[in-house]
Amino acid sequence: MNGRQYLDQIQHKGTDIHVFDGFTVYHGAHNIFLGSHIHLADALINAGSTFGTIIIEDYAFFGHRVMVLARAHDYAAFNLDRQKMIYEKPIHIKQGAWIASGAIILGGVTIGEHAVVAAGSVVINDVAPYTIVGGNPAKYIKTIQISESSVEDHRLNSEFQQTNVSRSNLAEINVSAQYWGAYIVPERLSTVIRHATQGSRILDIGTGRGAYVKKLQEQGYSVTGIDQTLYPEWYGEMSQDVLNASALRLPFADKSFDLSISFEVLEHIPQPEVALREIARCTRDKFILSVPNCSLDNPMRQYNLVAAHWSDPTHCNFFTKESIAGLLHAEGFDIVEMSDCVRISPHDYYWDSIKINRRIASLLKKIGNRFNLAESYWSSILIVASVTS
Fold first, then answer.
1. Residue 183 CB coordination number (10 Å)
2. Do the Cβ atoms of 202 and 224 come closer than 8 Å?
């Protein structure tokens, strides 16, 4: 078979995945989970039958002839027993990791976000995020320098990924990982509570780690979350409250929810109008959402700074207040209220850019923001819309 035929064997995958002839799935296609925008070249992947789950997140990038091996033989056995006795360990390659040509990733390893594995390396231990490793066995070489503000921008722009993983496979994923998105913005939460009535059924689109699902449930609401990425937090108590689904095709009957919410998601969806029609179909009363404010009229311009709204390659749409209002009106929503959300100051980026103690920098940022010593602008647009169709 050619590389594309092997890729077709993998059921649980997103979009924009590139392979060459020579790409091979030796075993366990059912136990491989791929995100979107991935380049696998001519890799060999050997996943396990049960425990050897392999997860490769969005924007992972492989060089030539990479091997990802979740299965191994028992060295303590001999002759035919050594050949037959196989053990399995999961492998998790996180968002944006670069695995250079000829590298071998063995079972039980997690490669952190945006880490780099040098060519020809053999990885037998976890690799920290933003770290370069190399050698046999692979060892630490250096840390990829990134400012605190850049890390925060990445966290605030966690993606609504377009994968196709069925909920029934949640139990198969045997990894413990940290994901971005486990935070609540107070303005958004208070707006939801203000517009939700007692007993409201709420749909959280792009729920991520489920922070809003958990918090709103604590407030007594019935909440269902959807996302197209699997998160460890979905185990246990949350397993009945979240599912894998796309905003472009919501798996719910008409008017199933009184209120729908979606925070920093719509900018990632190539067909936002299709998602909005689905949301209108499934929502009886109101839709509360936030999107990045992409107006260029903000203080950052004079400092030659640009918000992550413009630099994030996963953003498909760039909204202003006028354009998001127009899109909502066109798809059957009326604007109830529109406000600013998430304050950002260039003052913060300045303290991140100079070499001083982080605690001192954090204190200086707090003082500047507390006493309004620096200009600031609102990073996000928060909208409450009513469903008219």
1. 12
2. yes
> Could you give the angle at the alpha carbon of 166 between the alpha carbons of 251 and 4, nearest 5°?
115
Contact between 146 and 161 (Cβ < 8 Å): no
Delineate the domains of the chain, giving CATH numbers in brackets: 3-145 (2.160.10.10), 167-387 (3.40.50.150)
Greatest CA separation found in the chain? 74
Virtual torsion, Cα 72, 76, 81, 83, nearest 10 deg: 30
Report if pTM > 0.85.
Answer: no
Least confident among 150-159, 167-176, 190-199, 248-257: 167-176
Q: Please, how many CA atoms are within 13 Å of residue 113, restricted to the half-sphere of its CB?
A: 11
What single string gives the DSSP state of each residue in 365-381?
Answer: HHHHHHTT-S--EEEEE
User: Across the beta sheet with 201-205, what order do the strands follow?
Assistant: 242-244, 222-227, 201-205, 257-263, 283-292, 377-387, 333-344
Sign of CA dihedral 242, 264, 215, 205: negative
Phi, psi values for residue 224, rounded to 5°: -120, 135
